[in-house]
Specification:
single chain, five-stranded parallel β-sheet, binds CO-5-methoxybenzimidazolylcobamide
């Protein structure tokens, strides 16, 4: 996979170009999951590395994120279906104070593709909103994503609120995001942790 090419296109801000690259790869028979795993995610990770070393700045990262979302929108219909019988249901969101949603969207897409009903609350979701959604949708699994070390503690706040609202026992909590680890999941009392979207599906199935 031409990772460098994908990376350049993300930074160029040219959504049409990315859509063309993706469509060409699909026509050449590359499976959408492989395209995400071996081209889009590494291309975005490289954006993060350059941001960290001040080779690029926030406006460029924002532009790259917009192009990435457009690329994922092309792939979404190929990953998700409308199964008559859902294997389970998930309420998912990025925690309060955190606006990173690309990884969370990927996890939601892969879960849908695996037959889960997914209620996506978006990004910057407060603990109260998670609780309200659990009461409303009664999911088997609550998925939370955090990309900032400063927003990780919000995951614990949500779990604490579920305990005090007496709904913790009715839902399994799955967490993930770049700074999150299995050790952190154990520490805050989450039921599962997944390092990537593929693993999130596996862990979600195990939690049912
Ligand atoms: Co931000 N950002 N960002 N950013 N950004 C990071 C996370 C950072 C590591 C960059 C860096 O310094 N190298 C850094 C965090 C440092 C830290 O906390 N230790 C950072 C920072 C500092 C910031 C700001 C504070 C910058 C500023 O304003 N000065 C700011 C914060 C805004 C806020 O949220 N309040 C900010 C803003 C932004 C943008 C808005 C420009 C944009 C987000 C756009 C969007 O999401 N709509 C952005 C981006 C794009 C990034 C990087 C470059 C890429 C993130 C991404 O989409 N990766 C990121 C650097 C990096 O991660 N390397 C960075 C691709 C995505 C597919 O991977 O999200 O990891 P990821 O998801 C994976 C797994 O983590 C896992 O599966 C996914 C798919 O495999 N996963 C789960 C995720 N959620 C899961 C949930 C699960 C299970 C698995 O279960 C429920």
């Amino acid at each position: 996979m031409e990772q460098e090419r994908y990376h350049e296109v993300l930074l160029s801000g040219n959504t049409t170009k990315l859509e063309e690259l993706i469509n060409a790869a699909l026509q050449a028979g590359v499976p959408p999951q492989q395209l995400i795993r071996e081209a889009l995610i590494p291309a975005m990770e490289k954006v993060g590395e350059k941001f960290k070393t001040n080779e690029i700045f926030l406006p460029e990262v924002m532009l790259a994120a917009r192009v990435m979302q457009a690329g994922l929108a092309v792939l979404k219909p190929l990953l998700t279906g409308e199964p008559a019988d859902y294997v389970g249901s998930v309420v998912i969101g990025t925690v309060q104070g955190d606006h990173h949603d690309i990884g969370k969207n990927l996890v939601a897409m892969m879960l849908e593709g695996a037959g889960f009903k997914v209620v996506d609350l978006g990004a910057d979701v407060s603990a109260e909103k998670f609780l309200q959604a659990i009461r409303q949708h009664q999911p088997e699994i609550l998925g939370m994503s955090a990309l900032l070390t400063t927003t990780m503690p919000k995951m614990k706040e949500v779990i604490d609120l579920l305990v005090s609202a007496r709904v913790r026992a009715q839902v399994k909590v799955l967490i993930g995001g770049a700074p999150v680890t299995q050790e952190y999941a154990d520490r805050i009392g989450a039921d599962g942790y997944a390092p990537d979207a593929g693993a999130a599906v596996e862990v979600a199935k195990k939690l049912l």
